[in-house]
Amino acid sequence: MIVVINKIDRPDSRLNEVGDEVLELLMDLDASDEQLDSPILYCSGRDGTASTQPNTAGEDLIPLFDEVLKYIPAPEVDENGAMQMLVSAIDYNEYVGRIAIGRVERGEIKVNQDVTVGDFHKTKKEYRSKVVTLYQIEGLKRVPVDSAKAGDIVCVSGLENITIGDTIAQFGEFEALPFVKISEPTVEMTFSVNDSPFAGRDGKFVTSRQIRERLFRELLKDVSLRVSETDTTDSFRVAGRGEMHLSILIENMRREGYELSVSTPRVLYKEIDGKLHEPIERLVIDVPENCVGAVMEKLGSRKAELVQMTPVGSRMRLEFQIPARGLFGYRNEFLTATKGEGIMSSVFAGYEPYKGEIPRRLTGSLVAFETGESVTYGLYNAQERGELFITAGTPVYEGMIVGASPKAEDLVVNVCKRKHLTNTRASGSDDALRLITPRRLSLEDALEFIADDELLEVTPKNIRIRKRTLSNQLRAKERAKL
Question: Contact at 8 Å (CB) between 415 and 373?
Fold first, then answer.
């Protein structure tokens, strides 16, 4: 490895201390002697300098490049063989369609060259196509070129139905390059038009047609995503590889000016040999030794099965098999249990028989009683009944979630209630009330929090949680029927 310590230009930099901490971390991770002898460089990304000495500022980044050339072996390529390129990323342009991005593994690729396109797993028939344009990346720009040789990273347009994992080869000499098979989606959510009382206030794109076009445009460059129509024209089923996969799409749409409502995540089940099967994730966790008990207790209630436990220095590496739905809402619990020091990652492992019920959420919601603006007096009374998500002056509507209740059932609270003026008290006495700092929910926090009868309202400026049925009276009638 090459260890780079950045931001050496800051006045509070701790170069020697950070270098020692990196070495301690490598020892905790059971690094080899060769890895412990890795060179350390001291850089300033803002100034574009690198140095091999901690207290000496460099003039440019050449020392870093020299270390790369010295320690990192150059890839072995065949410049004279038949052209071969693996597509590792996809971009999209309205004028030229899909753009394949990857490295030329062998030979030379040229503009107007006839090629054969196929994939390693034989999921589609090989077909003939033609390279229309060819670009190489220089800085942040794409520069058109006539040809590129083995080792070059290029962008190719003009190839129909190209996708990640495909091999572009010289016509008549097709040989597929190995590529990990892209997993099928395991989690589904419903994206729908925002129909809350505050709909249309923030967003630029709010109609079902605009949302539909955006979702199907995403399919052109995201090969793990699936979008399908529903019984209504206002909703779409969107399936992806997990909560994070779909939350990235939601965040991108929000930043682009879209308004939408999304449902709680649901796993995609399969029926195999007449039995219900569910997606299982291989979960790998790296935590301090004193946090193992808390992590195992939480995961046990989520139907996780411990596969392996390996000590790594002062830390412990745990491997579990866990239902995909068991990971819903777990990330925040994990960070709390490990005091922010834990690392977790998961990968799809396959389908196994249904593991039984998993409790999703043990708390209820604080639901706004009426439409208006929250005030200090109303919030002061509401905070005694649970944890608040909003501050004074926040616009709310009937059926909007304004906090979490410690009890299992929902509680209706009036956060817009003002103190009445009397002969003995002035209205300004509200100033003496002290409010507890509310919990600010990020997009991922909100997706983990919402229950099956709730929706997440996403706009460019706000993230709100609401009940599917906004009217408090209608919800009470629905509960009475149950």
Answer: no
